[in-house]
Amino acid sequence: MKALGIAATGMMAQQTNVDVISNNIANANTTGFKSSRAAFQDLIYQSMERAGAATSEAGTARPIGVDIGLGVQTAGTVRLNTQGGLVRTDNQTNIAIDGQGFFEIEMPDGTPAYTRDGTFQLSAEGELVTMQGYRVQPGIVFPENTVSIEINEEGTVLAYEDGDPNAIELGQITMANFINPAGMRAVGDNFLLQTEASGEAQVAVPGDPGFGVLRQGFVESSNVDVIRQITDLIQAQRAYEMNSKAIETADQMLNAANQVR
């Protein structure tokens, strides 16, 4: 009886669905987090009777076939790159992206990573770094006696030194974007990596066509809609229960067949 295997694939698919939803809910307060959804597709079909097969020597043909699907499988998890809300922090080194794009970060091994988390700080050397101490690209170093920092919408970084009313321009924060940001690989710590699916990074200045602008003193909250996630969780639970019921029913039918004398 195929129902046992078919329903089992449904239970495994809904378990994956619950895992994805749980991760979304767990990261509801993670800065710059983008929620995901599980996508599914049906498995191959076993054809018992093919549509169009001849049914008589007179040339009549079967208008429909008899095709039994063998279940469902997970096609992938789709990252939803919609804008999260901006939360004011009044921290001069906090930056939010309002629009499309990513900050480029230099990892310890020198490879680039990308993030929407603009919770930046200054290192002991005065460099703009992430919470893990990784350098924000391109590297910007602030003078030791900096008393105030200004970062405009286009990413120009200015510093005011103690006793000097004139600002010093230190550099330009650039942004990266991808033709398919959903194809980037998440590696934790709010970092994403470029893949063949995402395409090559396109680097530009904030405010350029296709790129967002920067908001100093803000961070981007996650785009997780908790109410929607709870609703999806209930639906996944009910679907899991229905597949479980299908297995129970198939088992009862097999048991009845075994009792035939």
Widest sheet, order of strands:
8-7-11
Strand percentage: 25-35%
Tell me about the largest β-sheet: 3 strands, antiparallel
Instruction: Estimate nothing, just give the exact number of structural domains.
Output: 2
What average pLDDT do the residues reach? 91
Give the terminus-to-terminus CA distance.
20 Å
Instruction: Using the alpha-carbon principal axes, give the shape.
Output: elongated
Tell me the number of strands. Answer: 20
Number of helices: 2
Order of helices and strands: HEEEEEEEEEEEEEEEEEEEEH
Radius of gyration, taken over Cα atoms and rounded to an integer in Å: 27 Å
Query: Portion of residues in helices?
Result: 10-25%
Low-confidence stretches: none
Secondary-structure class: alpha+beta
